[in-house]
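A.,

Following up on our hallway conversation. Structure tokens first:
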């Protein structure tokens, strides 16, 4: 009925204020909202949560993160061992619900930089990458 459509549109309009709008159908912004990110513990928690959302949004392309590297070390790998081989005390953590691991002992600006490079690798605009960075 028209009433339920109008109600649904009103709900979507109010939801838009909390979530991000992006015109890509498989966009992380379709599943990521600020409130949920804010409940994660610390910068590491938010970093892992955002990466997990990116993995869910881009299951076929997420392996591109393996190309995101620092000068001296890899940031991503498919095992903790592989990361530990590229540096010491890197605190590898598994990205939730994924087959990927990420180093977590970087400072927050570095985490933001890593996230920017991941967003870029997955085809997001600079503006969208900035929105993701701001969530950490």
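Then the amino acids I'd put at each of the 136 positions:
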């Amino acid at each position: 009925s028209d009433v339920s459509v109008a109600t649904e549109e009103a709900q979507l309009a109010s939801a838009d204020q909390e979530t991000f709008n992006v015109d890509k159908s498989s966009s992380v912004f379709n599943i990521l909202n600020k409130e949920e990110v804010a409940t994660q513990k610390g910068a590491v928690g938010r970093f892992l949560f955002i990466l997990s959302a990116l993995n869910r949004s881009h299951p076929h392309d997420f392996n591109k993160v393996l190309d995101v590297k620092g000068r001296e070390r890899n940031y991503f790998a498919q095992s903790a061992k592989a990361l530990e081989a590229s540096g010491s005390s890197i605190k590898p953590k598994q990205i939730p619900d994924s087959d990927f691991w990420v180093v977590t002992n970087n400072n927050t600006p570095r985490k933001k930089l890593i996230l920017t490079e991941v967003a870029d690798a997955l085809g997001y605009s600079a503006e969208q990458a900035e929105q993701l960075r701001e969530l950490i």
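DSSP finds six helices and three strands in the chain. Curious whether your intuition agrees with the design.

B.
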